[in-house]
Amino acid sequence: MTVVATMAGTVLSVLVAVGDSVTDGQDVVVLESMKMEVPVQSEGAGEVSEIHVQPGDFVNEGDPLLELK
Amino acid sequence: MSKAIAGTIAGTIAGTIAGTIAGLAPEHCGAPSPEHDDRVTWTAAGRTNSDLLCKGVVELLTLNRNIGGEWTMIRKVLIANRGEIACRIIRTCREMGISTVAVYSDADKDALHVKEADEAVRIGPPPVAQSYLQIDAIIEAAQQTGADALHPGYGLLSENPELARRVAAAGIRFIGPSPEAMAEMGSKVAARSRMKEAGVPLVPGSAGALKDVDHALAEAKAIGYPVMLKASAGGGGIGMQVVGDAEALKKAFASNQARAAAYFGNGEMFIEKLVQSPRHIEVQVLFDEHGNGVYLWERECSIQRRHQKVVEEAPSSFVDATMRKQMGEAALRAARSIGYTNAGTVEFIVDADKNFYFLEMNTRLQVEHPVTEAITGLDLVEWQIRIARGEALTFGQADVRLSGHAIECRVYAEDPVKMLPSPGTVTDLILPQGEGIRNDVSLVAGAAVTPFYDPMIGKLIAYGANRTEAISRMAKAISEYRIEGIRTNLPLLEKIITSEAFAAGETTTEFIQHHISWKE
Questions:
Q1: Block means of pLDDT (10 residues each) for chain A, length 69 residues?
Q2: pTM for this predicted structure
Q3: Which of these CATH numbers, 3.10.450.50, 3.20.20.140, 3.40.50.2000, 3.40.50.20, describes B76-175?
Q4: B-chain residues within 8 Å CB-CB of A35?
Q5: Chain region(s) in chain B for CATH 3.30.1490.20
Q6: To the nearest whole angstrom, how far is the Cα of A38 from the nearest Cα of chain B?
Q7: Chain A: residue nearest B425 by CA?
């Protein structure tokens, strides 16, 4: 399962690490756009297998942020 | 030039032109007049020729007074801002015959404010901390271009006393209040005690820290429930709770005190009356540097999302003539108590029983100033500049016009339902036109809306002879607004403007949560 960016913006922080288990609805990444910080939530439970972004990266809406298995 | 010669020249110029403009001046020099009614022509025609002629005369008069040593000439203004407000300030400067300097970050190199200004200086990379908040770079740009005044706009550095101080130290006129007045209002606690001294109403609350639960109960009884229990050192809602009665206060006091002590190392508590169904109503004031001040009525700004205003109007349909006068005079007292000069706004929170309480003072031009311009016929940026160059107000309170009704909608680049930012490229843009419609924007088709700055991309203002006409013109304008490539809050604005609750004037800060639904 892929967690994607809900809006275009800059990655402010990544709240999880590879190997972490996350629950459905957990905040995993914080994006910033237009002076607003928006947490991105996982849409399911699983273990983080890969992280595609790091703080400072620019992402477009729909870009993959991380993978869960 | 010696003073004696200056005096002679001054007298001659003034005498010659005074006769020429006698019939023109009261109507067109920014002084309000009931007959002067050209505001509905903004969209298509802009300013009339007689206005321009009149402004030329004012320039001459200014020069004349300057020779006498009273006024300072402003020839070139640097605008330390971006977006629609930079464009709006440029427009007035141009009408006054003043040249303009824009500053820009790399993200804004193709922005409209850069194209519209006479000169433009790059001040850094896209993030505001590295560009628009860089006082050094901004002052350097002003010096490099020979600007003799600086307009800070709103947001960014506009309420930073340090900028005002540094600008003045560099021998440049700051178009705004003194740094001391800005600092005075910058501290909420200090401002509150200042306002109390000045006789400006504050939300009723306990005088000092509460000693214990019995003290809290006594104070709450005196104020009247419901009350808000707050931690003195609080922030982020910690230690804060609404309590409806004595029983609830008994339960809440100890636990909130303990939490505040744990979080802030300070368990000091106080209580304030809870303002229910509050309205956010603010008063525009204008003070020159000679001790004259007027209030330019109120703006109703209650409709908000995430504590940011979405729809504003002037006048407020909730405010009657008596209350208008009381609020206006309280705003004048507030401003006068700190020696305020230039344009400023005193914000009040108003309860359902029409009691109003001081919230804060914004020591700058406000985003929603166009609604005040619409009902008074004044150009606030023009007056900011005239005051900054030392002119005295040419009118008193009794001359300030209040005619018709104006509404402003803030157009945000955001998803209307989720209210999440939606940056992107504007592929198509058709702005609504028509009687009483004004657009303050900095967008053109092909422009990029970047994620670096505020999501507000434009302001749509509708003026009408009365509120009903203003609403119907606004509704029509929103329906004609066409913007492609990014999502905007226009669908939300349409729902608000066409709702029965808005027509009924039920404009409280809870408007969106109570009256807007996306379910069909």
A1: 92 95 94 88 94 94 94
A2: 0.81
A3: 3.40.50.20
A4: 453-455
A5: 213-273
A6: 8
A7: A8
